Amino acid sequence: MLLYSELKCKDVINIRDCKRLGRVEDLEIDECSGCICKIIVPGCSRFFSFLHTEPDVVIPYKDIRQIGPDIILVDVKA
After folding, report:
1. Which of 33, 37, 48, 77 could form a disulfide with 28 if both were Cys (CB 3.0 to 4.6 A apart)?
2. How far apart are CA 64 and CA 25, in angstroms?
3. What is the per-residue DSSP string for 19-62?
4. pTM score above 0.70
5. pLDDT, tens digit (0-9, with 9 covering 90-100), for 16-54
6. 14: which strand partners?
7. Please, are residues 75 and 18 in contact by the beta-carbon 8 Å criterion?
8. Distance of alpha carbon 65 from alpha carbon 55, whole angstroms
9. Rg of the Cα trace of the chain?
């Protein structure tokens, strides 16, 4: 079993380019089944975030390849 508090502390890494996407900020859960549909990683924000922020990265559960002790490996197109 995995708690949300444990999940949000893990780095999300894209296996396509080995880039760190960030950490889990939120989840989208199916109300009927109780299953996780998507994880949401906040977009990068610069020092002057009011000038430039990137949109959040929404990762469908099917694109999660592995959840390890420290990282979550995902396979998403850039």
Report:
1. 37
2. 15
3. EEEEE--EEEE-TTT--EEEEEEPPPB-SSTTT-BPPPEEEEGG
4. yes
5. 999 999 999 999 999 999 999 999 999 875 555 556 577
6. 19, 74
7. no
8. 22
9. 13
